[in-house]
Amino acid sequence: MARERIFQRHRHPIKTFSLGLQHVLAMYAGAVVVPLIVSNALGFTQEQLTYLIAIDLLACGVATLLQVWGNRYFGVGLPVMLGCAFQAVSPMILIGLNSGVSAIYGAVIASGIFVVLFSGLFGKLIRLFPPVVTGSVVTIIGLTLIPVAFRDLGGGQGSEDFGSGTNLLLGFGVLVFIILMTRFTKGFIRSIAVLVGLLAGTVAAGFMGEVNFAPIREASWFHMVKPFYFGTPTFEIVPILTMILVAIVSVAESTGVFMALGKILDKDLSSKDLARGYRAEGLAIVLGGIFNSFPYTTYSQNVGLVQMTRVKTRDVIVVAGGLLVVIGFVPKIAALAQLVPGSVLGGAMVALFGMVVSSGIRIIGSQVDLNRHENLFIIACSVGMGLGVTVVPELFAGAPDWAQIMLGNGIIAGSFTAIFMNLLFNGLGTKATATKMAEKQADAILGETEKTA
Question: What is the pTM of this model?
Fold first, then answer.
């Protein structure tokens, strides 16, 4: 009976469509910004960027539908939206610069297969990633992204007008605009503050002659999906290890989102429900690798929208997923995102990546006992190791190849430092402890969404 009440169809098609569109808008900025960042860092052409944005939106829709569908094999069956994982941005850029684009997608596919195969055992694997570990890892990833944001805010590294008054005015102007929107708006408008900031900044840049309309003129109205668009994937151990770590952290965060939605819907989630959710997320990651887009994870901001609107039926999410799929087949729409100048994007990225850092701090602050010196020491050493290796990567240039695999990547170095030190100081932990931590994470997400609403 509870399942029927949760999943009954909304009786007003127009309202269902508008609510679905709201969910799309709430996650749209995150879905579009990620391909813009990665393509800028890896030097993709205008045509490649248009494809990447379009296929990313389409894959977001497919990933969402896989998760919402909910059958006996995969899908948690809750009204959740999936989008590209911000945690993957920095690792993908590092892999692309060091091993090539083909290694990115080989690693993404391998990490997705890992999640699918071990979905039933993730309850045990996640014990290696308690909040003190996941919080530290998310903080490290966010900190490594901040320099990327500031380079774009200045106009892009190597650009002739880097740091010009126009770029600084646009970049910091967008950041201030987002801050003011977050301060003086509430509810849905507040949840799309970054998207509105990007739009406002692009309009301002247009009046200043800083917007290039060529991508829209040159983009087609329709395209077909092309598997392995960027070439045949290659499988290398360092990129695979990196993306598996990212996938595990994403799954750990998704667990909290699933449980938060379960509380909103008065639905008790079993371990089998969670395993199906993990399996759907793994399938979405594999699809992201095959179609050369991104790893996908559950978006917590859409939980706030469910709580705010009080509409808990999954047909709204089906509409949202369908809209993303349709948009993904139209490169003309995807090309709109390319109107955003680099400085405007950089200003928004400062806020977005700062939120990644604050997300890590929130996990640590709300779920970790900071009165224990051991936990403080774990955080200090893992974040210090991750940030240090990122800033001074040449430190281990003289080490053997096998050592460079572990030490030459700040995210891997910081993550393994956190895992090892947590095992040393806190042990593995019990299944009951892992469940309690997930429930605490769910309560933190609910508390945050209540403030947003």
Answer: 0.75
Cα separation, 336 vs 334, in Å, equals 5
Residues ≥6 apart with Cβ < 8 Å to 186: 452, 453
DSSP conformation letters of 189-233: HHHTHHHHHHHHHHHHHHHTT----HHHHHS-S-----TTTT---
Calculate Rg over the CA atoms of the chain: 21
Nearest to 237 by CA among 408, 122, 385: 408
Query: At residue 112, does pLDDT exceed 90?
Result: yes
| Cα–Cα distances in angstroms (integers) from residue 362 to residues 186, 359, 447, in the given order | 21, 5, 12
The full length of the chain comes to: 453
Q: Provide the pLDDT for residue 1.
A: 39
Residue 216 vs residues 11, 28, 50, 53, 212: alpha-carbon distances, Å: 37, 18, 9, 13, 9
- Tell me which range, 47-56, 102-111, 189-198, 390-399, is most confidently predicted by mean pLDDT: 102-111
Q: 174 near 198, Cβ under 8 Å?
A: yes
Region for residue 156 given its phi and psi (left: phi exceeds 0; alpha: psi -120 to 50; beta: otherwise): left
Task: Name the residue among 207, 311, 270 with its Cα closest to residue 76.
Answer: 270
Axis-axis angle for helices 13-42, 46-69 (nearest 10): 140
